[in-house]
Structures are given as structure tokens and as C-alpha cells.
Write a structure and sequence with these properties.
Elements (H helix, E strand, L loop, with lengths): L4 H9 L9 H4 L1 H10 L6 E5 L8 E7 L2 E7 L5 E5 L14 E3 L3 E2 L6 E2 L5 E3 L18 E5 L2 E5 L8 H12 L7 E11 L3 H8 L5 H4 L21 H20 L7 E2 L8 E6 L30 E6 L3 E5 L4 E10 L2 E11 L10 H26 L15 H18 L1
Antiparallel strand pairs: 1-10, 2-3, 2-5, 3-4, 6-7, 7-8, 9-10, 11-17, 12-13, 13-14, 14-15, 15-16, 16-17
Helix pairs in contact: 5-8, 5-9
Length: about 425
């Protein structure tokens, strides 16, 4: 993969434990490299199985210049294709979501079945062979209901490890038996890496996220021990140990697994206790949906968090799921898509109120947007230089940066 000497020098000079050089957040060349080396070669989170619950249901996703259509075929299997007609290249599906019997090109009506096979092409002559003109496949996999795609011809093989590991953690929440209650999209004026870095730490949470920290323990996401807080830090550790034992006994995997910078398909998971009522990430820390997920009979099951490199994070509770997708648009523009899921049989207005369901993360997303955009303005300033990460509260930011730089080096070398 081509990269200028300047980019290679930046990669070689990256200082461990510090933020990245400004060009990683502002350069068009590096953004193009990101789309080819990161989003073009790795497993990218794009949606959930409840996006496409029935045969013929589809959604589209843009990964750099590539458009991908993800659908459910007649056998209820997931399939993904490049969203490009094999005739003259017109885009097949122009809506974000929909339902079709077959995929019909709106330009000249070339028609493909849900397996991608070309089944109709009028006026092409007696010698035309449709067998080699099916849609180009894209790799697609589900992790207990979370959908990932990979544009590479040979995708990273270690995805199977993440899928098998996380199926045990996510499985009891039965995501495939949920429905999307609310979906939001925000375009943030910041580089996608700033969005991910902001998510990977809670150093900023107490002073910036009053709604989120209602249900999150102050000492749950990294804290520098000191004589003034040693008792509180230890109390949270003891609480977590007790709750993990209780949840594990009930069949809920809870222990931390951290492979954020040790695998090509980087990921991390952990179930943590919630504060106050301890039931859900809401303004009163009580469930937002009265109909619980899966076969749960108890509300106080903490919050299972799942992070993936390079573009997602997710929170699973007893009553609902919140899932986040980060999709780069340009060097200083990023789409953040948030979905709130509840049990498929939950009734709006009776079992849940969308306003209560979304209040915490709608507020948090807007606050994070302001922080990311503030950071983008700062890294573009000539005075910016990489600063040190906190070893207590920004450890996961360092792991994201390590993973990112490592994957770029592997691509250009």
C-alpha cells in the first residue's frame, strides 16, 4: 500500500503514551489511507439483525467510496454485496433501508435475486452469459445479532475468536429478538479517531456528562488511587467482585476480556455494576422498558459494555440495548449512528417511553459532539503538540492509538 515518506515518518515517530500528531486528524492523505487500510481491510460494525428482520429487508452503509447493501435472503441468511449494478455501475439501492423481492437496478432494470444472481437483463443478445454477472459479494458476519462486514478479499481470521467469545456474553440478551425503538444520526465536525478516543475514556465524564454519571459509578472507569479516595476505589472493586460472582452464577458472563491492541480484530468487554437503582442507564437508573430482554427475571444485571476496533461500542442492560456506529465521512467529519433496542414484543406507551429510553445517551451524544468538535479545532491549531495520556483514566485511548498505528504500519510496510 502506498504511503508518502511523511506518513511513514509520522508512524515511526509516534510517541507511546501520547496523543497522535496533528496530521493524523487533519490530513486528507492520512484519511484516504485510513479508509483503505483500516475501513477497507478490517471487520466494520454496521448494524443489527433487527435492522433486517424479514426476507428482502435491506440496509445500505457507506465505507469511504464503497457502498454496501446488507440484506436478509429467502432462507433468512445474512448477505452483503457491493451496491453496484454489474451493467454500467449504477447504484442499486439508494435508500438507507427498505424491503425488496429482488434487487432491481433503477437505471436499466437489471434484476438480481437475494443471492446476488443476475436473473433478468433485457436486450443483451443471444450470446450474453449472465452467469458471470452476479453482484460482488462482501464478507458479512453476525456476533450474537451485531452485524459486521469486511471489504477485504481475505478478511482477518481472528474475527471468529471475537464472535465465539462475545456470543457467550451477549447471547442471554437475545438481541435478535429485539426491535429498534429509536435511531439517531449525528454528523460531528471532527475526525473519526477523535470520536473513538473520546469514547475510550471517562476522564471527562464527571465534568461533562451529568446524565450519564447518574447510573455510572465515579470509580468504575479508571481512577488514580490516592489517600483521599482509596476506600471508595476499593469499595467499588469489592462490589464488582460480588456482583460478578452473582451474575456468573446466573449464567451471565461478566469478567473483563481486553484484546483492544493485542489482536487484529481488537475488542474488549466487561459487565459493571450500575449506581443508584442499579437497573439501567436512565435518568433515575431504573429500567426504561418494563418488558425485560431474553429470559431475564431480574432487573439489576449491571451494564455489559462491548468495544470493537475500529468503530463501535455497545451497552447491554436487562431492559434495553444501546449500540453505536462510527463512520468516517471526511478528515474532519464523522457520522455517529445510535440505536436503542427493546424486546420485540414491548409496546410503546405501555412498556416503554422513548423519551425516557433515550434521554441519557441523547444528552451524552450532544455533549460528546461538542467535545470532539472542540478537539478538532484544537488539533488544527499550530500550537498543538501531542500530550501525555493518563495511565489511570486513558489506558484504553492508548490501546486504540496503539492498535491504529500498528494496523497502519502493517498496511504500508
Amino acid at each position: 500500500m502506498k504511503a508518502s515518506n511523511g506518513v511513514r515518518e509520522l508512524l515511526a515517530a509516534r510517541r507511546t503514551g501520547h496523543s497522535l500528531d496533528a496530521q493524523f486528524y487533519t490530513s486528507q492523505e492520512i484519511f484516504d489511507l485510513d479508509m483503505e487500510a483500516i475501513f477497507g481491510r478490517h471487520w466494520i460494525y454496521v448494524g443489527v439483525e433487527p435492522d433486517i428482520p424479514e426476507p428482502g429487508d435491506y440496509f445500505t452503509v457507506k465505507l469511504g467510496r464503497a457502498s454496501v447493501v446488507v440484506l436478509r435472503n429467502d432462507d433468512m441468511e445474512l448477505r452483503a454485496f457491493h451496491n453496484v449494478c454489474r451493467h454500467r455501475g449504477a447504484q442499486l439501492c439508494n435508500a438507507h433501508k427498505g424491503s425488496v423481492g429482488n434487487l432491481v437496478c433503477p437505471y436499466h432494470q437489471w434484476t438480481y435475486d437475494l443471492s446476488g444472481k443476475l436473473i433478468y437483463a433485457e436486450h443483451m443478445g443471444e450470446d450474453f452469459d449472465p452467469s458471470g454477472r452476479g453482484l460482488k459479494r462482501v464478507h458479512v458476519e453476525s456476533v450474537a445479532g451485531l452485524i459486521f462486514v469486511c471489504l477485504a478479499e481475505n478478511p482477518p481470521e481472528d474475527f471468529a475468536r471475537m464472535r465465539e467469545t462475545m456470543a457467550r456474553y451477549i447471547g442471554p440478551h437475545q438481541l435478535a429478538d429485539c426491535k429498534i425503538a429509536v435511531q439517531d444520526e449525528i454528523v460531528e465536525a471532527g475526525n473519526w479517531k477523535l470520536v473513538m478516543e473520546n469514547n475510550r475514556e471517562c476522564y471527562h465524564c464527571v465534568s461533562n456528562h451529568p446524565e450519564l454519571t447518574i447510573s455510572l459509578y465515579e470509580y468504575g472507569f479508571g481512577y488514580q488511587p490516592s489517600p483521599s479516595n482509596i476506600e471508595q476505589v476499593q469499595a467499588f472493586r469489592d462490589l464488582t467482585e460480588r456482583e460478578h460472582a452473582r451474575w456468573e452464577a446466573a449464567g451471565l458472563k461478566s469478567a473483563e476480556i481486553d484484546e483492544l491492541d493485542s489482536c487484529v480484530t481488537g475488542f474488549r468487554t466487561k459487565r459493571l455494576p450500575l449506581d443508584k437503582a442499579g437497573e439501567s442507564q436512565t435518568m433515575d437508573a431504573k429500567v426504561a422498558c418494563q418488558k425485560l430482554l431474553g429470559n431475564f427475571g431480574e432487573r439489576n444485571l449491571g451494564g455489559l459494555s462491548f468495544w470493537t476496533q475500529p468503530n463501535s461500542w455497545h451497552h447491554f442492560m436487562s431492559d434495553h440495548i444501546v449500540t453505536f456506529t462510527v463512520l468516517p465521512i471526511g478528515p474532519d467529519q464523522t457520522l455517529v449512528r445510535t440505536k436503542w433496542l427493546v424486546h420485540k414484543d414491548a409496546v410503546e406507551g405501555r412498556d416503554y417511553d422513548p423519551a425516557k429510553l433515550t434521554a441519557v445517551w441523547r444528552a451524552t451524544n450532544q455533549q460528546d459532539r461538542e467535545l470532539v468538535e472542540m478537539s478538532q479545532r484544537g488539533v488544527a491549531d499550530p500550537a498543538y503538540e501531542p500530550g501525555p495520556y493518563s495511565p489511570y483514566t486513558e489506558e484504553l485511548v492508548e490501546k486504540f492509538a496503539n492498535w491504529y498505528v500498528g494496523r497502519l504500519k502493517a498496511a504500508v510496510e
